[in-house]
């Protein structure tokens, strides 16, 4: 290319950008400095108020929301998408999680992995111990896939601690209930993929290891609420699925011939009402006042993406959580609830950003619902992710640029259009005539459109940077810096007076709860003396 041609193309690009930028519109009020000053002053007032009004109550309830793979970039993009779905430019929108007063960063690496997986991370934020990738509910002394390394290395989760304290417990996920995230709450398995005994190597069965579905029913039989997917791990091999009897991939898979939903029903305390449901209508027809236990399995494996759900019989995440909270709230001692938006991760792995972001918007809607159903003075709510993804968006897009859309202008190297959203690696890599695909006539808003990536991979990967922790409620301010991920359940347990660290909870010690965090003059004096020495 001659330099004349280059100049011409640059000029072309510049003009395109200029056209795009002059079309930008944003709310008129933003032109007024008073608008920004008032907004900042209101935030300042809130910050000053919070400083003097630490919530040092004991947390009766704990709700932990996990966006699987919900990186900071995913949160920002979901915020903009949510705003745009409401007809706004988007950037100024507040997610429900954005309103939480405290936040921190979580270091997500596994003991054996710089870029972690969902199993080792779930062990960290549920059991309080970092672990190897691919393992759930076991310490790092247990090796992935090696049954013989498990014995004696089991670690308990905050769900156990809550149960031991007489609280109710719930697990709600959009994946199979035996998936990595929920399973670390109740199972101990050196392999996250041992969903049923059919998924295990024979020597692991001989050595006495148990599959995760079996553990769901047997380890802690009195979990009040279990909602998600995963029917095919519960029934004997060749049992046709109730919803898809023609689909043999949905068949039951168990080799031991057990009917686990039957066992689940039978091992409930006498006189208690237990219900098994497998579709939305059955779930919504339950009277939470009259149900003590519910097991809902809405798909043979993972549930549908939110955008595809309306063509199925699946409930939404928010519908499941609504029922869960109504049942759990009946316990005067409170509850622990784990809610996972598990398919943000699956959308990203497929590079289908639209799916990942709509899952995140549904998670945020669910957080809002839970906020309305509980009170900040007795409920500690934590929202975080297990790990990040190699997902980002950029390209000097103007204000209000469609979140899933093209950057105005062309690449100044290959002169083709590009989307703002891109992945570092993944399946969206497609070479056409030796170059990047020209997406001019591709519908980039299609829910299954795969955004482009630099490195071709069948499945886009997780990434290793920190993820955010949002917190509100009793002692939420203990999540305040850059923390190891396994710190999270220690805070939740401390706030709720459950688990290993309860000395501050004796009735006459209630006023001591906040003391270690008060940076008063005595403490400052001691510190200054120490530094002087
Ligand atoms: C599924 O179950 C049906 C009915 O029992 C059986 O005929 C079929 O072989 C099974 N298919 C698979 C893949 O398990
Ligand atoms: C499992 O047990 C339940 C409850 O007894 C029963 O309704 C269901 O049909 C059983 N399913 C299979 C596949 O045996
Ligand atoms: C991309 O496709 C559009 C529409 O067919 C075409 O006008 C444009 O020239 C193509 N760009 C390149 C660099 O091939
Ligand atoms: C409260 O804290 C003080 C000072 O740290 C301690 O001496 C006291 O024993 C605590 N009270 C209780 C009941 O734990
Ligand atoms: C400072 O904290 C210590 C220990 O928590 C407490 O005993 C003391 O009364 C506090 N002093 C002031 C001035 O608040
Ligand atoms: Zn993943």
TrEMBL record:
Compartments annotated for it: namely: Cell membrane; Extracellular vesicle membrane
InterPro entries according to UniProt: Alkaline_phosphatase, Alkaline_phosphatase_AS, Alkaline_phosphatase_core_sf
How this chain sits in the membrane, per its record, is:
Lipid-anchor; GPI-anchor
Catalytic residues (positions): 118
Q: What is its EC number?
A: 3.1.3.1
Q: Quaternary state and partners of this protein?
A: Homodimer.
Protein's name according to its UniProt entry: Alkaline phosphatase
Q: Which organism is it from?
A: Microcaecilia unicolor
């Amino acid at each position: 290319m001659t330099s004349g041609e280059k100049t011409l193309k640059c000029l072309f690009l510049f003009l395109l950008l200029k056209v795009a930028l002059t079309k930008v519109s944003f709310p008129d009020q933003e032109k007024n400095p008073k608008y920004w000053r008032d907004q900042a002053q209101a935030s300042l007032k809130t910050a000053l108020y919070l400083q003097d009004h630490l919530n040092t109550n004991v947390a009766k309830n704990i709700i932990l929301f996990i966006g699987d793979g919900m990186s900071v970039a995913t949160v920002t993009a979901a915020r903009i998408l949510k705003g745009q779905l409401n007809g706004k430019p988007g950037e100024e929108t507040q997610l429900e999680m954005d309103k939480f007063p405290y936040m921190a960063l979580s270091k997500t690496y596994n003991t054996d992995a710089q870029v972690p997986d969902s199993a080792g991370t779930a062990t960290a934020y549920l059991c309080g111990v970092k672990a190897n990738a691919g393992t759930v509910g076991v310490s790092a002394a247990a090796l992935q896939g090696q049954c013989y390394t498990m014995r004696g290395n089991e670690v308990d989760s905050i769900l156990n601690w809550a149960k031991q304290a007489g609280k109710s417990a719930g697990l709600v996920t959009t994946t199979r209930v035996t998936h990595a995230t929920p399973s670390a709450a109740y199972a101990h398995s050196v392999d996250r993929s041992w969903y049923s005994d059919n998924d295990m190597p024979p020597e692991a069965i001989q050595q006495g290891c148990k599959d995760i579905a079996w553990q769901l029913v047997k380890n802690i039989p009195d979990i009040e609420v279990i909602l998600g997917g995963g029917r095919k791990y519960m029934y004997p091999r060749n049992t046709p699925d109730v919803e898809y009897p023609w689909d043999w991939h949905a068949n039951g898979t168990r080799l031991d011939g057990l009917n686990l939903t039957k066992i689940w029903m039978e091992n409930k305390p006498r006189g208690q009402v237990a219900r098994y449901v497998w579709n939305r209508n059955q779930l919504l027809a339950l009277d939470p006042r009259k149900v003590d236990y519910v097991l809902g399995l809405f798909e043979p494996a993972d549930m549908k993406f939110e955008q595809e759900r309306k063509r199925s019989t699946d409930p939404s995440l928010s519908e499941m959580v609504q029922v869960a909270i109504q049942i759990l709230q009946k316990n005067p001692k409170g509850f622990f609830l784990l809610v996972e938006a598990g398919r943000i991760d699956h959308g990203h792995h497929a590079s289908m950003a639209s799916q990942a972001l709509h899952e995140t918007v549904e998670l945020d809607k669910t957080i809002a619902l839970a906020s309305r159903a509980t009170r900040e003075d007795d409920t500690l709510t934590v929202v975080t992710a297990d790990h990040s993804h190699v997902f980002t968006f950029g390209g000097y897009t103007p204000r209000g640029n469609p979140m899933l859309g093209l950057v105005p202008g062309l690449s100044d190297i290959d002169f083709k259009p590009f989307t703002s959203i891109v992945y570092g690696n993944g399946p969206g890599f497609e070479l056409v005539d030796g170059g990047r695909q020209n997406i001019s006539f591709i519908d980039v808003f299609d829910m299954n459109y795969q955004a482009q990536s630099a490195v071709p991979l069948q499945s886009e990967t997780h990434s290793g940077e920190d993820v955010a922790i949002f917190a509100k409620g009793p002692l939420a301010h203990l999540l305040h810096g850059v923390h190891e991920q396994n710190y999270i359940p220690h805070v939740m347990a401390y706030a709720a007076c459950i688990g290993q660290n309860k000395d501050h909870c004796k009735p006459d010690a209630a006023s001591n709860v906040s003391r270690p965090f008060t940076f008063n003059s005595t403490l400052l004096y001691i510190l200054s003396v120490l530094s002087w020495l």
